[in-house]
Amino acid sequence: MKQERPAEIINVQHIRYHILQITFSDGYSNEYDFAKIFQFRGIAETLKNIDYFKKVKISTGGDVLFWEKNGYDVCAENLRYFVKNN
Q: How far apart are CA 81 and CA 69, in angstroms?
């Protein structure tokens, strides 16, 4: 049986605080407050800073959201679960 490939992240937009609007390749889009999953310790500690948090990027291929300097990332499949079960 062929396994379906998860939807890719095609757009991310900072809304306010630690909230991002995430859009997937299948058209699904919703806001998610990352403060719900970040404990702001270890590599996520730098994400407390909103100016740094806003610098989120989408990987080539859309399979990961990431922040360059600290190496924190969230794969599209997990992100889709978080966003959908907000």
A: 25
